[in-house]
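TICKET: design request
STATUS: open
ATTACHED STRUCTURE:
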Protein backbone atom coordinates (compact mmCIF):
# COMPACT_ATOMS: atom_id res chain seq x y z
CA UNK A 1 0.00 0.00 0.00
CA UNK A 2 1.05 3.59 -0.49
CA UNK A 3 1.83 5.74 2.52
CA UNK A 4 -1.00 6.06 5.02
CA UNK A 5 -2.56 2.74 4.07
CA UNK A 6 -3.98 4.07 0.82
CA UNK A 7 -4.14 1.90 -2.28
CA UNK A 8 -1.23 2.22 -4.71
CA UNK A 9 -2.09 4.69 -7.47
CA UNK A 10 -1.32 3.31 -10.93
CA UNK A 11 -1.61 4.26 -14.59
CA UNK A 12 -1.48 2.21 -17.79
CA UNK A 13 0.15 3.35 -21.02
CA UNK A 14 -1.54 1.62 -23.96
CA UNK A 15 -5.10 0.44 -24.59
CA UNK A 16 -4.53 -2.50 -26.90
CA UNK A 17 -5.26 -6.16 -26.12
CA UNK A 18 -2.69 -6.26 -23.34
CA UNK A 19 -3.67 -2.89 -21.88
CA UNK A 20 -7.39 -3.67 -21.67
CA UNK A 21 -6.83 -6.95 -19.81
CA UNK A 22 -4.25 -5.29 -17.58
CA UNK A 23 -6.83 -2.68 -16.59
CA UNK A 24 -9.31 -5.45 -15.77
CA UNK A 25 -6.77 -7.22 -13.54
CA UNK A 26 -5.75 -4.02 -11.78
CA UNK A 27 -9.38 -3.16 -11.03
CA UNK A 28 -9.77 -6.55 -9.30
CA UNK A 29 -6.71 -5.93 -7.09
CA UNK A 30 -7.26 -4.98 -3.47
CA UNK A 31 -3.97 -3.05 -3.40
CA UNK A 32 -3.95 -1.13 -6.69
CA UNK A 33 -6.01 1.92 -7.66
CA UNK A 34 -6.61 2.17 -11.43
CA UNK A 35 -6.27 5.94 -11.81
CA UNK A 36 -5.59 6.57 -15.53
CA UNK A 37 -5.31 4.81 -18.91
CA UNK A 38 -3.39 6.71 -21.57
CA UNK A 39 -3.37 6.19 -25.32
CA UNK A 40 -2.57 8.36 -28.31
CA UNK A 41 -5.64 8.01 -30.51
CA UNK A 42 -8.83 9.65 -29.18
CA UNK A 43 -10.87 7.40 -31.48
CA UNK A 44 -9.21 4.22 -30.22
CA UNK A 45 -11.59 1.31 -29.65
CA UNK A 46 -9.45 0.30 -26.69
CA UNK A 47 -9.81 3.64 -24.96
CA UNK A 48 -13.58 3.51 -25.51
CA UNK A 49 -13.74 0.04 -23.97
CA UNK A 50 -11.69 1.14 -20.97
CA UNK A 51 -13.95 4.18 -20.50
CA UNK A 52 -16.97 1.85 -20.57
CA UNK A 53 -15.29 -0.07 -17.72
CA UNK A 54 -15.44 3.13 -15.68
CA UNK A 55 -11.77 4.12 -15.87
CA UNK A 56 -10.43 7.65 -16.48
CA UNK A 57 -8.79 7.86 -19.92
CA UNK A 58 -6.71 10.27 -21.96
CA UNK A 59 -5.41 10.37 -25.52
CA UNK A 60 -2.47 12.52 -24.42
CA UNK A 61 0.04 9.67 -24.07
CA UNK A 62 3.04 9.97 -21.77
CA UNK A 63 2.73 13.76 -21.45
CA UNK A 64 -0.73 13.36 -19.96
CA UNK A 65 0.52 10.70 -17.53
CA UNK A 66 3.31 12.95 -16.28
CA UNK A 67 0.89 15.87 -15.92
CA UNK A 68 -1.66 13.77 -13.99
CA UNK A 69 0.98 12.20 -11.73
CA UNK A 70 2.82 11.38 -9.75
CA UNK A 71 1.80 7.73 -9.83
CA UNK A 72 3.23 5.00 -7.62
CA UNK A 73 3.38 2.58 -10.57
CA UNK A 74 2.99 3.01 -14.32
CA UNK A 75 2.56 -0.03 -16.57
CA UNK A 76 3.91 0.37 -20.11
CA UNK A 77 1.71 -1.76 -22.40
CA UNK A 78 2.41 0.29 -25.52
CA UNK A 79 5.32 -0.71 -27.77
CA UNK A 80 9.05 -1.23 -27.48
CA UNK A 81 9.99 1.72 -29.69
CA UNK A 82 8.24 4.20 -27.38
CA UNK A 83 9.46 2.80 -24.08
CA UNK A 84 12.75 4.71 -23.82
CA UNK A 85 10.82 7.97 -24.17
CA UNK A 86 8.39 6.85 -21.46
CA UNK A 87 11.16 6.00 -18.98
CA UNK A 88 12.97 9.27 -19.69
CA UNK A 89 9.79 11.20 -18.87
CA UNK A 90 8.89 9.20 -15.75
CA UNK A 91 12.29 8.67 -14.19
CA UNK A 92 12.46 12.11 -12.48
CA UNK A 93 8.99 11.62 -10.95
CA UNK A 94 9.95 8.71 -8.67
CA UNK A 95 7.42 6.40 -10.32
CA UNK A 96 8.07 2.68 -10.68
CA UNK A 97 7.78 1.76 -14.37
CA UNK A 98 6.81 -1.83 -15.19
CA UNK A 99 7.58 -2.51 -18.84
CA UNK A 100 5.48 -5.14 -20.62
CA UNK A 101 7.24 -4.51 -23.94
CA UNK A 102 10.29 -6.60 -24.92
CA UNK A 103 12.87 -3.81 -24.76
CA UNK A 104 15.23 -5.53 -22.35
CA UNK A 105 15.72 -2.18 -20.62
CA UNK A 106 15.54 -2.03 -16.85
CA UNK A 107 15.86 -4.94 -14.44
CA UNK A 108 14.63 -8.24 -15.88
CA UNK A 109 11.72 -9.34 -13.69
CA UNK A 110 10.28 -12.85 -13.31
CA UNK A 111 8.07 -13.46 -10.23
CA UNK A 112 9.65 -15.81 -7.73
CA UNK A 113 13.08 -15.60 -9.36
CA UNK A 114 14.07 -11.95 -9.51
CA UNK A 115 11.74 -10.59 -6.81
CA UNK A 116 14.54 -10.22 -4.29
CA UNK A 117 16.43 -8.02 -6.76
CA UNK A 118 13.53 -6.16 -8.38
CA UNK A 119 11.94 -5.02 -5.10
CA UNK A 120 14.25 -2.00 -4.95
CA UNK A 121 14.27 -1.27 -8.70
CA UNK A 122 12.02 1.38 -10.22
CA UNK A 123 12.44 0.22 -13.81
CA UNK A 124 11.36 -3.37 -14.41
CA UNK A 125 11.15 -5.31 -17.67
CA UNK A 126 8.93 -8.40 -17.91
CA UNK A 127 10.90 -9.84 -20.87
CA UNK A 128 8.01 -11.31 -22.92
CA UNK A 129 5.00 -13.60 -22.55
CA UNK A 130 7.14 -16.52 -23.75
CA UNK A 131 9.82 -15.59 -21.25
CA UNK A 132 7.30 -15.48 -18.40
CA UNK A 133 6.10 -18.98 -19.35
CA UNK A 134 9.49 -20.57 -20.01
CA UNK A 135 12.00 -18.98 -17.65
CA UNK A 136 10.55 -20.24 -14.33
CA UNK A 137 10.79 -23.80 -15.69
CA UNK A 138 14.23 -23.31 -17.26
CA UNK A 139 15.60 -21.65 -14.13
CA UNK A 140 14.38 -24.60 -12.06
CA UNK A 141 16.04 -27.05 -14.45
CA UNK A 142 19.31 -25.09 -14.30
CA UNK A 143 19.41 -25.62 -10.54
CA UNK A 144 19.47 -29.39 -11.07
CA UNK A 145 21.97 -29.61 -13.96
CA UNK A 146 24.15 -27.44 -16.21
CA UNK A 147 22.41 -26.32 -19.42
CA UNK A 148 24.65 -25.78 -22.45
CA UNK A 149 21.97 -25.06 -25.09
CA UNK A 150 18.33 -24.05 -24.74
CA UNK A 151 15.71 -23.75 -27.47
CA UNK A 152 12.29 -22.25 -26.84
CA UNK A 153 9.43 -22.28 -29.35
CA UNK A 154 6.33 -20.25 -28.45
CA UNK A 155 3.10 -20.78 -30.36
CA UNK A 156 0.13 -18.51 -29.87
CA UNK A 157 -3.14 -17.66 -31.58
CA UNK A 158 -2.69 -14.88 -34.12
CA UNK A 159 -5.83 -13.23 -32.75
CA UNK A 160 -3.90 -12.44 -29.56
CA UNK A 161 -1.09 -10.61 -31.35
CA UNK A 162 -1.93 -6.95 -31.81
CA UNK A 163 -0.07 -4.51 -34.03
CA UNK A 164 2.52 -3.57 -31.40
CA UNK A 165 3.26 -7.23 -30.65
CA UNK A 166 3.88 -7.97 -34.32
CA UNK A 167 6.11 -4.91 -34.73
CA UNK A 168 8.15 -5.95 -31.69
CA UNK A 169 8.92 -9.56 -32.71
CA UNK A 170 12.63 -8.92 -33.28
CA UNK A 171 12.95 -7.34 -29.83
CA UNK A 172 10.86 -10.19 -28.37
CA UNK A 173 13.30 -12.79 -29.68
CA UNK A 174 16.45 -10.90 -28.66
CA UNK A 175 15.25 -9.98 -25.16
CA UNK A 176 13.87 -13.45 -24.42
CA UNK A 177 17.12 -15.09 -25.55
CA UNK A 178 19.18 -12.75 -23.35
CA UNK A 179 16.92 -13.36 -20.34
CA UNK A 180 17.12 -17.14 -20.76
CA UNK A 181 20.91 -16.98 -20.70
CA UNK A 182 20.84 -14.64 -17.71
CA UNK A 183 18.57 -16.81 -15.57
CA UNK A 184 19.99 -20.23 -16.55
CA UNK A 185 23.68 -19.67 -17.27
CA UNK A 186 23.31 -21.46 -20.62
CA UNK A 187 25.95 -20.48 -23.19
CA UNK A 188 23.48 -20.47 -26.07
CA UNK A 189 19.75 -19.86 -26.32
CA UNK A 190 17.53 -19.86 -29.40
CA UNK A 191 13.98 -18.46 -29.43
CA UNK A 192 11.35 -18.95 -32.10
CA UNK A 193 7.80 -17.56 -32.29
CA UNK A 194 4.82 -18.98 -34.22
CA UNK A 195 1.50 -17.20 -34.69
CA UNK A 196 -1.23 -19.57 -35.81
CA UNK A 197 -4.61 -18.69 -37.36
CA UNK A 198 -5.96 -22.17 -36.49
CA UNK A 199 -9.61 -22.50 -35.50
CA UNK A 200 -10.52 -23.18 -32.84
CA UNK A 201 -7.67 -21.09 -31.49
CA UNK A 202 -5.23 -23.21 -29.44
CA UNK A 203 -3.96 -22.30 -25.96
CA UNK A 204 -0.62 -20.54 -25.66
CA UNK A 205 2.04 -23.24 -25.92
CA UNK A 206 5.76 -23.06 -25.15
CA UNK A 207 8.05 -25.97 -26.05
CA UNK A 208 11.50 -26.07 -24.46
CA UNK A 209 14.48 -28.23 -25.33
CA UNK A 210 17.47 -28.22 -22.97
CA UNK A 211 20.82 -29.86 -23.67
CA UNK A 212 22.67 -30.22 -20.38
CA UNK A 213 25.44 -31.92 -18.48
CA UNK A 214 24.84 -33.82 -15.26
CA UNK A 215 21.14 -34.50 -15.78
CA UNK A 216 19.52 -36.42 -12.93
CA UNK A 217 15.90 -37.23 -13.82
CA UNK A 218 14.37 -37.24 -10.34
CA UNK A 219 15.63 -33.80 -9.24
CA UNK A 220 14.71 -32.32 -12.63
CA UNK A 221 11.15 -33.62 -12.41
CA UNK A 222 10.78 -32.35 -8.85
CA UNK A 223 12.17 -28.92 -9.78
CA UNK A 224 9.83 -28.58 -12.77
CA UNK A 225 6.79 -29.57 -10.72
CA UNK A 226 7.68 -27.08 -7.97
CA UNK A 227 8.23 -24.26 -10.47
CA UNK A 228 4.92 -24.97 -12.22
CA UNK A 229 3.07 -24.89 -8.92
CA UNK A 230 4.62 -21.49 -8.12
CA UNK A 231 3.52 -20.04 -11.47
CA UNK A 232 -0.02 -21.40 -11.01
CA UNK A 233 -0.29 -19.36 -7.82
CA UNK A 234 -0.67 -16.22 -9.98
CA UNK A 235 -1.57 -17.76 -13.38
CA UNK A 236 -3.99 -20.63 -12.64
CA UNK A 237 -4.16 -21.77 -16.27
CA UNK A 238 -0.45 -22.70 -16.39
CA UNK A 239 0.17 -26.43 -16.89
CA UNK A 240 3.07 -28.71 -17.82
CA UNK A 241 1.69 -30.66 -20.79
CA UNK A 242 4.69 -32.98 -21.16
CA UNK A 243 8.12 -33.60 -19.66
CA UNK A 244 10.78 -35.98 -21.00
CA UNK A 245 14.11 -36.31 -19.23
CA UNK A 246 17.06 -38.12 -20.81
CA UNK A 247 20.71 -38.40 -19.83
CA UNK A 248 21.69 -35.16 -21.59
CA UNK A 249 18.44 -33.78 -23.03
CA UNK A 250 15.27 -32.44 -21.42
CA UNK A 251 12.07 -31.61 -23.28
CA UNK A 252 9.26 -29.67 -21.63
CA UNK A 253 6.01 -28.32 -23.04
CA UNK A 254 3.83 -25.92 -21.07
CA UNK A 255 0.42 -24.59 -21.99
CA UNK A 256 -1.23 -21.48 -20.60
CA UNK A 257 -5.00 -21.05 -20.70
CA UNK A 258 -6.59 -17.77 -19.65
CA UNK A 259 -8.90 -18.40 -16.70
CA UNK A 260 -11.47 -15.86 -15.53
CA UNK A 261 -11.66 -12.20 -16.47
CA UNK A 262 -12.45 -10.88 -19.93
CA UNK A 263 -9.90 -12.86 -21.93
CA UNK A 264 -10.80 -15.81 -24.18
CA UNK A 265 -9.27 -19.07 -23.02
CA UNK A 266 -6.69 -19.11 -25.81
CA UNK A 267 -5.19 -15.78 -24.67
CA UNK A 268 -2.80 -17.35 -22.18
CA UNK A 269 0.09 -15.28 -23.50
CA UNK A 270 -1.62 -12.09 -22.37
CA UNK A 271 -2.84 -13.63 -19.13
CA UNK A 272 0.59 -14.72 -17.90
CA UNK A 273 2.51 -11.49 -18.54
CA UNK A 274 -0.29 -9.31 -17.15
CA UNK A 275 -0.65 -11.52 -14.09
CA UNK A 276 3.10 -11.23 -13.50
CA UNK A 277 2.91 -7.44 -13.89
CA UNK A 278 0.09 -7.06 -11.37
CA UNK A 279 1.82 -9.41 -8.93
CA UNK A 280 5.04 -7.39 -9.07
CA UNK A 281 3.12 -4.14 -8.59
CA UNK A 282 1.31 -5.64 -5.60
CA UNK A 283 4.63 -6.73 -4.11
CA UNK A 284 5.90 -3.20 -4.56
CA UNK A 285 2.79 -1.91 -2.80
CA UNK A 286 3.32 -4.25 0.13
CA UNK A 287 7.06 -3.57 0.51
CA UNK A 288 8.22 -1.28 3.36
CA UNK A 289 8.92 2.27 2.21
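STATUS: resolved
RESOLUTION: sequence designed for all positions
ATTACHED SEQUENCE:
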Amino acid sequence: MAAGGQRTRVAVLGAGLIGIDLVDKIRRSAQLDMALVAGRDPNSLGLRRVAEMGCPTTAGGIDAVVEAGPFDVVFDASNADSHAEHWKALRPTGTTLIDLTPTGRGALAIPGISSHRSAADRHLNLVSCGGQAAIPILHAISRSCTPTYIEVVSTGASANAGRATRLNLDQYIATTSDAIRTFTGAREAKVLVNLTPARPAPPFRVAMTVLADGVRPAPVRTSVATAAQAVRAYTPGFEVASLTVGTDRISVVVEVTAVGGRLPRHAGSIDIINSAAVLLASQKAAAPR
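CLOSING REMARK: The longest strand covers residues 146-157. Residues 268-286 form the longest helix (19 residues).
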